């Protein structure tokens, strides 16, 4: 959980300072970083230390009051964000995964690739895959249809999909046991 939180702080900084390129120094104060991370300067120091240990940043303290410190982002957002997103999927935290890609500043390319990955995770390859894969998926859909099964949304809360018996899902087909 600490690793996930640390990466979350890194992403927060990258999104806030998105105009700063990887390996380009950003001169900033701890007070400014505490505003961005909604944390005390003491906690920001701890967060920076963890990020530096993981190789995400380089931090050079300004050395004195009023002197700005240098923060260097060592990894691009494109390298850090997808594994962070996958961690939510692996934990079944679909709401958090969706919130993460909907955040302001997340580049469109990252958003699209993460969305496609989530669709694959939720067994929705028709939307997520290319034309060749869709043709293979039709065979799967035809097999389901021949068994009277159709994909149906089970919960908007989790975003999970499952296969439901067509007769049970269609209210017009409901009847008593004697009707069957």
TrEMBL record:
- By its UniProt entry, which Pfam families does this protein fall under? SgrR_N
Location of the Transcriptional regulator SgrR N-terminal HTH domain: 7-104
Show the ranges annotated as biased composition (Basic and acidic residues): 169-180
Task: Name the source's superkingdom.
Answer: Bacteria
**Region described as Disordered: spans on this chain:** 160-180
Protein name, UniProt field: SgrR family transcriptional regulator
Species of origin: Salinithrix halophila
């Amino acid at each position: 959980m600490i690793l996930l939180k640390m990466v979350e702080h890194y992403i927060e900084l990258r999104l806030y300072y998105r105009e700063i390129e990887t390996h380009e120094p950003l001169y900033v104060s701890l007070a400014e970083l505490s505003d961005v991370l909604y944390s005390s300067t003491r906690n920001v120091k701890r967060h920076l230390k963890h990020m530096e240990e993981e190789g995400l940043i380089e931090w050079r303290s300004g050395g004195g009051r009023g002197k700005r410190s240098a923060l260097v982002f060592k990894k691009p957002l494109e390298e850090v964000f997808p594994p962070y997103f996958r961690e939510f999927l692996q934990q079944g935290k679909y709401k958090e995964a969706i919130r993460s890609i909907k955040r302001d500043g997340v580049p469109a390319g990252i958003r699209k690739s993460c969305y496609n990955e989530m669709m694959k995770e939720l067994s929705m390859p028709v939307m997520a895959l290319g034309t060749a894969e869709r043709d293979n998926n039709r065979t799967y859909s035809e097999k389901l249809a021949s068994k009277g099964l159709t994909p149906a949304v089970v919960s908007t809360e989790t975003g999970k999909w499952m296969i439901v018996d067509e007769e049970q899902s269609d209210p017009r087909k409901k009847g008593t046991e004697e009707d069957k």
